[in-house]
Amino acid sequence: IIAQHQLDYLCIPEVTLWRAISVAYAGVGLGDAQPLSDPGWIGTPRRVREDRLVRGWTAVRERASELVRRVAPNTDLHAVIDVFNRLSALNCMAFVFAAGHRGTRLPALNLCGLYGLPQIVFVADKSSQRYDRLRVIPRSQTIAAVLDAHLESIDALARRFASRDKSAATRLRALVSGERPFAPVFFTVHWADHRLRLKPITTNALRDLTHRYFDSSPNFGRHHLVSALVESGCPRIVLRACMGHHRAGIEPFAPDMGMS
């Protein structure tokens, strides 16, 4: 019922599969399947379990709060930049998880795609350059909170730069105002000799964070999201669209979908 690619991400409780089998058996008159005596999990071992997710995100929130407390009105600008860079990486990890992102091609996460519309975000994390490289996902409360907080951080940094380097402040404000729609959203700031450089967060930097907090890979959100959608009974076409596994020939209007 799901794409072959998604089997690499899937990990569900055996009771979920058994429940579906029981419904199918009952539907054809065979009666309920016998319950499992010791249910476990089926699928990839790379899905991070719920208790580890809770511990990991709790640690991330505590770390973010600790970083914010470092900043005061008289804090040195270089120290503020360091705090921003660390928060930017944490925000990137949070978005990648919530969006089921592959954790690669992070510079393609641009302002237009993530902030252009109030209800949805566009993610491009595939190597394809065709129409199917973009996938549309809902701008959930979690995603909105992460993106709003990140934009506030950029704006706050721009205000800090205003009295030290007006050119840098103007460049950062251009991001907040949307004047550079295709600029990467998640980046680190490097400032020396009144020269501002913005470097996109890398997959390697993201990998360091996901390993530290979750002992997992940068795309660990895909394991969680695919499995959760399957457990919830999400229709195949929606699952494929959300995860970016649709391709030419399986669009909603294509014969392979069995829809007219």
Beta-strand share of residues: 5-15%
Strand segment tally: 6
- Principal-axes geometry comes out as elongated
State the major sheet. Answer: 2 strands, antiparallel
Number of helical segments with 4 or more residues: 10
Order of helices and strands: HEHEHHHEEHHEEHHH
Radius of gyration: 22 Å
Strand order of the main beta sheet, please?
A: 1-2
Structural class: mainly alpha
| Spatial separation of the terminal alpha carbons | 19 Å
The average pLDDT is 83
Poorly predicted parts = 250-260
Provide the helix percentage: 40-55%
Describe what is shown at a glance.
The protein has 260 residues and is mostly helical. The protein has helices spanning 4-7, 14-27, 50-69, 77-98, 111-115, 141-161, 166-176, 203-214, 220-231, 236-243; strands at residues 11-13, 41-43, 120-124, 134-138, 187-192, 195-200. A two-stranded antiparallel sheet has the order 1-2.
Task: Walk me through the structure.
With 260 residues, the protein is mainly α. Helices cover 50% and strands 11% of the residues. The protein has helices at residues 4-7, 14-27, 50-69, 77-98, 111-115, 141-161, 166-176, 203-214, 220-231, 236-243; strands spanning 11-13, 41-43, 120-124, 134-138, 187-192, 195-200. Strands 1-2 form a two-stranded antiparallel ribbon. A hairpin with a 2-residue loop joins strand 5 (187-192) and strand 6. Helix 4 (77-98) runs antiparallel to helix 6 (141-161), helix 4 (77-98) packs across helix 8 and helix 6 packs antiparallel against helix 7. Mean pLDDT is 83; it is low at 250-260.
